Structure formats: structure tokens, C-alpha cells
Amino acid sequence: MVFWCTPIKTLSFKLSLGCAYWRTGLMERPDVWELRNIGGMPWPWMQPLKGTTTIGVACRDGVVLATDTRATMGYFIAHKKARKIYPIDDYIAMTIAGIVGDAQSVVETLKVNAQLYKYENRRRIPVRAAARLVANILFSSRTVPLLLQAVIGGIDEEGPHVFALDPLGSLIEEKYVSTGSGSPVAYGVLESDLKDGVTVEEALPVVVKAVNSAMRRDAASGDSFDVALITREGYRELTEEEKRRVLGGR
User: Fold this and answer.
1) Is 95 considered catalytic here?
2) Least confident range of 36-45, 77-86, 152-161, 190-199
3) Domain limits at 171?
4) Long-range contacts for 8-11 (Cβ within 8 Å, ≥24 apart)?
5) Number of neighbours of residue 67 by Cβ within 10 angstroms
6) Percent composition of the chain: helix, strand, coil (DSSP 3-state, to 5)
7) Residue 20 above 50 pLDDT?
8) Residue 7, domain member (yes or no)
9) How confident is the model at residue 3, as a pLDDT?
10) Residue 94 lies in a domain
């Protein structure tokens, strides 16, 4: 299954890209790739795959994460209630887009290391350290990339943070970020409606509107959505009733 959509234009190694296509079976899919002659050697240029929508917003008092729940295999809807938000501990969570197996492996590695850090240092792992660990895992696998685009959000002693990571381990802290095939639609809402310095309560309707708009206009996103809030009180996900109420009963 694939929660993917964003073109990986940063994959610059011929071998890496070939391996990535071989691992996902895309070499046999002429409808999703084309051969380009680069440096005298033809190789497949990564095209947008079928997708998802994930959003992360750092607020004044916490973080809001949201995703749709549709998982696809090419043009086939493989799962309508796929989980794409994973709590790492009580104050950090991660959204995933990409190959499900790759993503789940990284999530489990991060969970274990977060617990080890807590036991060894008698304090929770900082959000930046958790994001850096994932970046190092992705960078170390760059010759045969883990096809994962992640958003890591949480709150620690320094305050709320949201980090965006690409498959080669690039790490950027953002005030808000969206990944997946629905991200252009989501960004349109976020850029228009989201203000600086908002609280979690103020950002929540904007984030829900953004993911809902992406689901309406992006065929690879849909079915339903999940929303997680991370504050000083900890991690929690909205119930179905709360999501309907934020949507205005729609």
C-alpha cells in the first residue's frame, strides 16, 4: 500500500532511484514512469504516485496534526480507514506518507528509541532529537531510500515544534506543513486562513477545513480523516463526534 504523492525531485542518484522503483514494483508500471536519458544512461524519473494528505501546525500552546485515511494501491483504494498518525510518546507524534512498510518500520524504531532515551536520561526525548533520529535513519538509507515523507510534531521544554522530513533525510522545522497529493489544496486553505501565533483551539477549524478540502478535490485522499492534538496535557485524538462538530455537522 502507498500513502504517496509528492514527486521526489531530490533523488539524485541513478542507482538509488532505480532501486526505489524496483522495490515498489514500479518498473513494471509504464503509466507511472518515463525513461529519461541523463548522462548517457536512461533511468526512470520519479513521477507523482498515488497519494494522501497530511498536515502539521505548530501553535502557541501545542501542535495539531491531521491526515486523511485513504490508502491506495495504484488506482485501487486498498483501505478506507488507514492510520497515518502515530503517537511516539505522550507528547510527540508522527504522520506518514509513502510506502506503508517503510513508514511503520521507522515509526517502531523511533518509539523504541524514545523509550530508551527516557529510561537512560530520566526525561522525555526532545522533539528535535526525535526528528533528527528519523532524519539520520532516512539519510543512512539514501542509496536504497526508504520511501517515506514524514511530519513529526510535539511539545517539549522549548515549546511546540513541527518538523518535515523527506526520503533522503532532509530536516526542516516549519510553522505549518502539508505533504501528499492533497497538499496543494491544503496549503491553499492554510496560507489563506491560518494566522501567526494561534492557539490549538483557533487552529483546529482551519486544519480540519484544509484536510476536508483536500479530500474533496484530491482523488487519492478521502473517506475520512484523523486529527490529533498535542498540548502540555499530552496527546489525544478527536472523537467522531468532535470531528463532526468542528466540520459544522457536515
Assistant:
1) no
2) 36-45
3) 54-246
4) 8/46, 8/145, 8/147, 8/166, 8/167, 9/46, 10/166, 10/167, 10/168, 10/170, 11/46, 11/145, 11/167, 11/168
5) 31
6) 35, 30, 35
7) no
8) no
9) 55
10) yes
As for how many domains the chain has, the answer is: 1
Pick the catalytic residue from 6, 52, 72, 179. 52
Across 193-206, average pLDDT: 96
Looking at residues 180-189, what average pLDDT do you find?
95
- Rg (C-alpha) for the chain, rounded Å, is 18
- pTM of the entire predicted model: 0.81
* Residue reference for cell 502539508: 178
- 1 located within any domain: no
Q: What cell was used for 211?
A: 484536510
- Domain CATH number, residue 135: 3.60.20.10
Q: Is the pLDDT of residue 22 over 50?
A: no
Give a yes or no: residue 198 inside a domain.
yes
Q: State the Cα–Cα distance between residues 44 and 55, nearest whole angstrom.
A: 29
